[in-house]
Amino acid sequence: MAALPLEEISVQLESPNLRDRMVALASLRDVAPEDAVPLIKKVLDDESLQLRSMAIFALGVKPTAESYPILMKILETDPDYGIRADAAGALGYLGDVRAFEVLARAFYEDTDWLVRFSAAVSLGNLKDPRARQILIQALDSQEVVLQQAAISALGEIEDVESVDNILRFAESDDWLVRQRLAEALGHLPTPKSVSALKYLEKDVHPNVAEAARISLKRLEEKSDRA
């Protein structure tokens, strides 16, 4: 299907029909960021939360000088926790290291676990080692999904010193936590990581065992290249 002209997309984004606006926004997928962002901005305050969520995600994958400040403002001021969580996630996709402070603040200060979860995931996506203390703290959260996010993010930032902190989750009752641990250890080359992965390779849940196998192979390949 041929791409719609930008003028036509612009008009369609103002349609009273939600489906028309959603189709128009989706059609910006292959449009250059400089051309797409001004059009994405047209629906950032749409009455549909679903469309707003789509627009915020679109900003995260369309880096321009405007993308970061817009997402930062949404994360810090929007009254809807789902929208704030979307903005936190989009900042991770954007990969702008300036987002570290605003994501750290959201993790510490936002009252909703979903926003804090998105912030933790995005701190991992930024691969900024300054996130270590925040993520170590998140391991003690009462929310299992926050523990999962923190384990994954510690792997993403390749924080080898955190291995002792995350190994306690090898006995977690939640198989997703064990899977996240197996995946993270594949980025943390230490003898303890290898031992833990050999243990997790025998896990009763196939997803955990497979993740451990993949991570062991990754560590072996990394060792061979060293």
UniProtKB/TrEMBL annotation:
Keywords: Antenna complex, Lyase, Phycobilisome
Residues of the signal peptide: none
GO cellular-component term (any): phycobilisome
Record has Lyase as a keyword: yes
Keyword Kinase: no
Single GO MF annotation: lyase activity
Gene3D superfamilies membership: Leucine-rich Repeat Variant
SUPFAM superfamilies (alphabetical): ARM repeat (SSF48371)
Family in the record: Belongs to the CpcE/RpcE/PecE family.
Protein name: HEAT repeat domain-containing protein
Lineage: Bacteria, Bacillati, Cyanobacteriota, Cyanophyceae, Nostocales
